[in-house]
Amino acid sequence: MKKLSFVNKTIFITNSLVALLLLLSYLLPYVAPKNFAFLSVLSLAVPLLIILNGLFMLYWLLKAKKQLLLSGLVLLLGYSYVGSLYKFSSSKNIENGDDLSIMNYNVRLFNLYNWIDSDSVEQDIMNLIEKDNPDVICFQEYHPHERVNLSSYKYKYEKLSGNRIKYGQAIFSKYPIVNSGSVEFPNTANNAIFADIVKNNDTLRVYNVHLQSWRIDANVEDLKTEDSERLFNKAGETFKMQQEQAELFIAHKTQSPYKMIICGDFNNTAYSYVYKEIKGDLKDAFEEAGNGFGKTFNFKYFPVRIDFILVDDTFAVDSFKVYEEKLSDHYPIRAKINLN
Q1: Does the keyword section mention Coiled coil (predicted)?
Q2: What is the tens place of the pLDDT at every residue in 310-322?
């Protein structure tokens, strides 16, 4: 430290703070938001903390300074975190005609309020679905629309609410749905729905989970105008609600007589308490077969993965894909699963 210039000392102090925050974040999956709501907010910043520590390590490496060990050791301790952010291997893509193909997509009401300056969003989404042709689709923020034609899916289950505008969650399937239902969350329009689907001789339970949204504009320029204390309080309350919703969902999930697939928009990252609790012993399809950042939410400044497909640990994930089409504030994801 004594041999460092003033500029490098300042950089190392900043590096130390960022490394400490990342180290602290490793505790987040084990800390209930109800107990430490403020700390839970840190889960949203974990992707940025990983990237910053990687950049600090690279900086010190280029300078040939031993200070690279600080971020290097913190990243090494959290190697599974890095794997949840970025998959260095190429995408797994096994062709198997007996796979179940499942897509998850928060469609943001099919652009009902023109958030995207385009008159063709509904048709573009339909074109994407028709091209990929998944067997099952889980929609969040679904709104029945006259220009949305899903007639190729013979079976569906919708749970909609609202007076003037009906919206909610939906599951569409090419295979018979023999049972369905909803897990209601109090004081919100969010919920979790399920459909028991029969493929060949297998009955599978597909869950579609939409946890409480942040109620924060993700646009960085708008975030700058928010009062920081109000912002953190709002996020903390949201994470408390998410914990309560996750607990209701898990109580229902544990009663399932079938192997399951959980899709959804968790409105939280893979570094959060609710993700860990919901995932349990299931496999994360991105971690099994994806590559790159796996970014599922359109946040400009660093990659955020808050949409998931989790599958029973006896299933093999043969492929996973994140689509790059910007037709919502979320990107669609699709996994192909070998049930055998």
Answers
A1: no
A2: 999 999 999 999 9
Listed in order, strand segments (DSSP E) in the chain are 100-106, 136-142, 155-161, 167-173, 177-184, 191-199, 202-210, 260-265, 283-284, 307-311, 316-322, 333-338
- Which is nearest to 294 in space by CA: 330, 267, 246, 339? 330
CA angle 76, 77, 79 (to 5 degrees): 60
What phi, psi does 214 have (nearest 5°)? -70, -25
Tens-place pLDDT, residues 238-258? 999 999 999 999 999 999 999
| pLDDT, tens digit, 9 for 90 and up, residues 187-196 | 998 999 999 9
CB-based burial, 194-226: b 16+ in 10 Å, e otherwise: bbbbebeeebbbbbbbbbbbbeeeeeeeeeeee
Rounded to two decimals, what is the model's pTM? 0.92
Name the nearest CA neighbour of 306 among 329, 336, 325, 289.
Answer: 329
CB atoms within 10 A of CB 304: 22
Phi, psi angles (nearest 5°) of residue 334:
-145, 135
